[in-house]
Specification:
Layout: H1 3-6, H2 12-21, E1 27-28, H3 40-51, H4 64-78, E2 88-91, H5 93-105, E3 111-115, H6 122-128, E4 132-136, E5 159-164, H7 177-189, E6 193-197, E7 222-227, E8 240-243, H8 246-259, H9 265-277, H10 279-302, E9 315-316, H11 327-338, E10 340-341, E11 343-344, E12 356-359, H12 364-380
Helix pairs in contact: 3-9, 4-9, 5-6, 5-8, 10-12
């Protein structure tokens, strides 16, 4: 077996999720999956396409109509111009986009900056591409926003790229225009490729998402990844997309066509409907998440846990350092004692130690019961 693969750990998210499934009456705040059904109009379009036999392969890059809709959406929503013919590749979720982006640009030994805490697949994707992960760790007191000083001493002659993800999973942090402008200067100065995972772009609270690719000099060096899982409650449909310079998309498409051929055709038809007529559903779900966000943050703070206010995605990332427990011990004892599953912060990188991730993509009733149980657990300590 490949030594590289043998050394990769299993996902810390899935470990606790799998344990929670075996515990009767457990409330899971672990997996980042919307509790909403996919909006009916999107499901209805998929059913219609199935009944009409639209089940053949699409082109490798995806249905042209879907790429045209993605192009329109990116232009109208984020002021980004991408040709549907050469600058968009439809992927099997944004997760595939991360993988093939890394493999398309990384030579063995190239260094890739990762901003931790970050999604669990980033580091393994760098390693599987033969790259070397270099960690930058934004501070909690800065709202987990990446600052220029966080990159000091991290960029060297072997640094090829940086992977950023805002709104952030697991912290819920966002970056505003000024934050991104400061970073863009550094990325341009050092000629870095930027992989920007923007899967939570529609889920921001209080201000609109800004894509780093929209800044001067950045579109030609940025791969933007997005998808339908989070905003449209389409996790199981496995549909995402990558946008960027034509030469990079050509390289990513080459990997995609050999490994996966194309994204599921039924999902692609559903994606067209989502982009054409799904905005109202996204707004409704986002409003519900915002209410849940307020409930969980205030609840955690009231029981004495220091909790940064998330401004995006659907996660809270409270500090549990005051308990004296490690993140792993806290989560395992909470699960066994009170049947609440959260994810240890160190699953998202070593700098996540002392925190836990709580997804609020659950009903208000479930969140309130989970908060009651967490409070009872803290009292028992």
């Amino acid at each position: 077996m490949s030594q590289r693969i043998k050394e990769l750990p299993f996902s810390g998210i899935r470990k606790f999720f799998d344990v929670a499934k075996e515990i009767k009456g457990a409330i899971s705040l672990g997996v980042g999956e919307p509790d909403f059904d996919t909006p009916w109009n999107i499901r209805a379009e998929a059913i219609y396409q199935l009944e009409n036999g639209s089940t053949a392969y699409s082109s490798n890059a995806g249905l042209l109509e879907l790429r045209q809709e993605i192009s329109r959406y990116m232009r109208e929503r984020f002021h980004l111009e991408y040709s549907p013919l050469s600058q968009i590749v439809v992927t099997v979720g944004a997760s595939e986009g991360i993988d093939i982006a890394m493999r398309a640009i990384i030579e063995p030994g190239d260094e890739v900056l990762l901003v931790e805490p970050c999604f669990v697949s980033y580091k393994p994707c760098v390693l599987m591409a033969g790259g070397v992960p270099v960690i930058a760790a934004p501070k909690a007191e800065n709202g987990f926003r990446l600052r220029p000083e966080d990159l000091e001493g991290k960029i060297g002659p072997k640094t090829k790229a940086i992977l950023i993800s805002y709104p952030s999973n697991p912290t819920g942090a966002i970056m505003d225009l000024h934050d991104l402008e400061l970073l863009a200067e550094i990325f341009i100065k050092h000629d870095l490729c930027v992989i920007s995972d923007e899967i939570y772009a529609e889920l921001t609270y209080g201000q609109e998402h800004v894509s780093i690719a929209s800044l001067p000099g950045m579109a030609e060096r940025t791969i933007v990844l997005n998808g339908f899982s989070k905003a449209y409650a389409m996790t199981g449909w496995r549909l995402g997309y990558a946008c960027g310079p034509a030469s990079v998309m050509e390289a990513m498409l080459k990997i995609h066509q050999y490994v996966l051929m194309c994204a599921p055709t039924t999902s692609q038809h559903a994606g067209i409907e989502a982009l054409k007529n799904g905005a109202a559903s996204v707004r409704a779900m986002k409003s519900e998440y915002d209410g849940r966000r307020r409930v969980i943050v205030s609840g955690l703070r009231e029981m004495g846990l220091d909790c940064f206010e998330p401004k995006g995605a659907f996660y809270a990332f409270p500090s549990i350092k005051s308990t004296g427990l490690s993140s792993d011990d806290f989560c395992m004892r909470l699960l066994k004692q009170e049947r609440v599953a959260a994810v240890p912060g160190n699953a998202f990188g070593e700098c996540g130690e002392g925190f836990i991730r709580c997804s609020y993509a659950s009903s208000i009733d479930s969140l309130k019961e989970a908060l009651k149980r967490i409070g009872r657990f803290l009292e028992s300590l």
